[in-house]
Amino acid sequence: MAKANLYSASGEAKGEVDLPGSLFEQPVHRHAVYEAVRNFLANRRQGTHDTKTRAEVSYSSGKLYRQKGTGRARAGSARSPIRIGGGTVFGPHPRDYSYTLPRKIKRLALKSALSDRAAHARVSVIEDPELDAPKTATMAKLIAALELEGRHTLFVVPAAATPLYKSLRNIKGVRALVSRELNTYNIVWADNLIFTQSALTSVEEVFGS
Predict the structure, then answer these.
(1) Helix/strand/coil for 44
(2) Backbone angle region of 127, left / alpha / beta, with phi > 0 → left and psi within -120 to 50 → alpha
(3) Per residue in 51-70, pLDDT tens?
(4) 49, 74 in Cβ contact below 8 A?
């Protein structure tokens, strides 16, 4: 059974907690992880890059000089790609890079990434902090108590924990994700994963099947 250290909301050790085997004790399929990360990054691309073809370059369309008798090579237009400032041949143009990855591959990659982090003791669970309003300093103290400063840390929080989410988003090296938005890319990015107890339950309900 995969286990993780359990901490209080202030960072005090409380023992260990069992992690769901359906998520944290699965074989690691590295190629599925690669495909999921590649898909995530491709879907995030804006695709707004553009270069001007010879039809779009702002130059006169007149012939540069007469065809014969100059001793030089023929030149029909200043827009020619072989001339400085001319159009670009086969350059990039706006396009959509996004594509759909099969749901089974996404789920397999997510479980593989979680299992890999659990196997290397990179998963921790904390009791749900009770915050009435965003308190960045409070969460910074928790990270310091867990000795995670200077590392990439992913906090997974429940959907209803808005103050907790806002408390984490301004801390350097820390990302906060709502449990239902957990994805392979952010798991791979993080050196350490921290789940609140309610978020861990939510993740099992959403992704454990």
Answers:
(1) helix
(2) beta
(3) 999 999 988 888 999 999 99
(4) no
Which residues of the chain form CATH 3.40.1370.10? 3-45+98-207
The CA distance from 158 to 207, in Å, is 14
Q: Which residues contact 16 (CB under 8 A, 6 or more apart)?
A: 3, 4, 5, 6
Question: What is the pLDDT, as a whole number, of residue 208?
Answer: 80
Q: How many CB atoms lie within 10 A of CB 11?
A: 15
The class that CATH gives domain 3-45+98-207 is alpha beta
CA dist 49 → 46, 55, 95, 96 (Å): 8, 17, 8, 11
Distance between first and last Cα of the chain:
18
Q: In this predicted structure, what is the pLDDT of residue 190?
A: 95
Cβ neighbours around 120 below 10 Å, total: 10
**How far apart, in whole angstroms, are the C-alpha atoms of residue 122 and residue 144?**
16
How much of the chain exceeds pLDDT 90, in percent?
74
pLDDT at residue number 152: 94
* Helix 197-207 × helix 103-119 angle, to 10°: 140
Residue 9, pLDDT > 80, answer: yes
Residues 6+ apart with CB under 8 A from 102: none
